[in-house]
Amino acid sequence: MTATRMTNYDRTMLRVMNDPRGRRLRATAARRRSTVAAHVALTAAIVALLTHFCLSRAESTWAAVAVVVLLLPWMVAQGLINGATRGLLELRERALDERQLAERSQVLARAHRATTVLLAVAVLGLFASGMADGDALRTYAPPALAAGLVVHFLMPVWVAGLTARDEPAEDEPATLP
After folding, report:
1. What pTM value is reported for the model?
2. How far apart are CA 126 and CA 107, in angstroms?
3. 155 and 115 in contact (C-beta within 8 Å)?
4. 97: buried, middle or exposed (CB in 10 Å: 19+, 13-18, 0-12)?
5. With contact defined as beta carbons under 8 Å apart, do 16 and 79 qualify?
6. DSSP structure string for 12-45
7. Any transmembrane segments, and where (predicted)?
8. What whole-number distance in Å separates Cα of residue 111 and Cα of residue 103?
9. Most CB atoms closer than 10 Å: which of 30, 80, 84, 94?
10. Which residues have CB under 8 Å from 157's CB, separation 6+?
């Protein structure tokens, strides 16, 4: 922990993020990967539906209703990822120890690199579609920008969920590296 004193909020969030009740759901790498995959799929569906709702000229109230329905499983998946990472990205710095701070820095660096590659691919794709058809930029730029913003925001969570280590079993003693 850092030298700054933890607040009541910090202690409460630390307790929530380290709650053992959900351990079974996040115990293995396969379960964490499945949760991250579900979260990515739900996020893609929500972004697609919101894009349709905002840009469609047809009646699209159904898309807004579908987004509201998908938000509940999306929030559950988000909570499972946060629990699997022990709040690595959600807790304040003063609530993390040195190892967790280093792990957070590594996750953020990996996420930054992955997001940079995805944004470069998106820009190249938009340029290519713009050269092929002049109206394509007007059609594809808003959804691409929305998807880029969402990916930029959520990539650290996904990377943290994919790189989280397995917890030692209760009968195994924790070993120091």
Report:
1. 0.83
2. 28
3. yes
4. exposed
5. no
6. HHHHHHT-GGGHHHHSSHHHHHHHHHHHHHHHHH
7. 68-89, 110-132, 144-164
8. 12
9. 84
10. 39, 78, 81, 82, 85, 89
Rounded CA-CA distance 37/114 in Å is: 16
Give the distance, in angstroms, between the CA of residue 159 and the centroid of all CA atoms in the same chain.
7
Task: Give the per-residue pLDDT at 176.
Answer: 56
Using alpha carbons, select from 89, 84, 77, 88 the residue that is nearest to residue 165. Answer: 84
Angstrom distance (rounded) from CA 79 to CA 39 = 10
Question: Looking up tokens 């979260």, which residue turns up?
Answer: 39
What b/e sequence results for 108-131 when a residue is b if at least 16 CB atoms lie within 10 Å of its CB, and e otherwise?
A: bebbeeebeeeeeebeeebeebbe
> Where in the chain are the domains?
23-163
